[in-house]
Q: What sequence folds into this?
């Protein structure tokens, strides 16, 4: 008789279907994006550290840092960073609301999910309007 | 003395990670802090647009700004370390790779924290 239990033995039980089986609901998509933006912010912490190191190093190195930010690639990274930060922040607030045990009916779940996406785009736009006005 | 607790009760007490809800709670505490500190960071960067180096240095060295930045770095690096830990534990199934990734994760978070904290303190106390 086949061994069905014990260390290192995987019994041949049915598995739950993986992600690609489900149609992408907004709640699920925002959950995945929340994790992806978290990972992006993890990498983005290098940029924050670089900024602080540049400021602490001296005027020449700081202006080199600023000239990097001013390239099209630098601006793209900063624009992306802004949205990623806002999206993760809005997603975080959504999860903190759910942590209180409220907002689990389907209508509210959809509203919070779409709302966090809309709020992240709106906040990114507001920040970059401020950047455009401040830079002018 | 023999414990009166059943093995199941022992496992349930602090769970298989032996940390209980510590990870969960730290993630939420730093999340709440990061909301405020993240808004502060965006405001700080926008307010420094177009400023010359002397102004940037003076502003970053201001006690209130420094303390908030120190808070952001501490809270942010704790949050990102335990967040990435969860991602690693979810997706890296090979035990050796997982342990290696967890070590690198901690090293990276500590490096970001120390480099940033040093820079902030240098801007405040340095010549």
A:
């Amino acid at each position: 008789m086949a061994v069905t239990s014990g260390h290192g033995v995987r019994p041949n039980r049915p598995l739950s279907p993986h992600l690609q089986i489900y149609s992408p609901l907004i709640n699920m998509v925002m959950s995945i994006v929340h994790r992806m933006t978290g990972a992006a912010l993890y990498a983005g912490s290098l940029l924050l550290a670089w900024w602080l190191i540049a400021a602490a190093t001296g005027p020449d190195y700081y202006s080199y840092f600023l000239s990097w930010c001013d390239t099209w690639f630098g601006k793209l990274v900063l624009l992306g960073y802004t949205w990623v930060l806002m999206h993760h922040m809005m997603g975080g607030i959504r999860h903190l609301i759910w942590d209180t045990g409220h907002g689990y009916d389907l209508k509210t779940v959809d509203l919070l999910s779409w709302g966090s996406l809309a709020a992240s785009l709106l906040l990114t736009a507001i920040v970059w309007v401020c950047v455009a006005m401040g830079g002018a | 003395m023999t414990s009166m607790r059943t093995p199941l009760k022992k496992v349930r007490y602090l769970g298989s990670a032996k940390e209980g809800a510590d990870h969960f709670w730290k993630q939420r505490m730093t999340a709440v802090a990061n909301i405020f500190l993240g808004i502060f960071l965006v405001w700080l960067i926008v307010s420094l647009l177009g400023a010359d180096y002397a102004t940037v240095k003076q502003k970053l060295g201001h006690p209130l700004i420094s303390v908030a930045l120190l808070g952001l770095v501490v809270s942010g690096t704790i949050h990102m370390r335990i967040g990435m830990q969860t991602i690693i534990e979810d997706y890296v199934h090979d035990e050796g790779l997982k342990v290696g990734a967890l070590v690198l994760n901690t090293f990276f978070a500590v490096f970001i924290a120390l480099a940033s904290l040093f820079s902030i303190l240098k801007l405040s106390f340095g010549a």
Summary: Chain A is about 75% helix and 0% strand. The mean pLDDT of chain A is 92. Chain A has one domain: 34-135. The interface with chain B takes residues 35, 38-39, 41-42, 45-46, 48-49, 52-53, 55-56, 58-59, 62-63, 82, 85, 89, 92-93, 95-96, 99, 127, 130-131, 134-135 of chain A (CB under 8 Å).
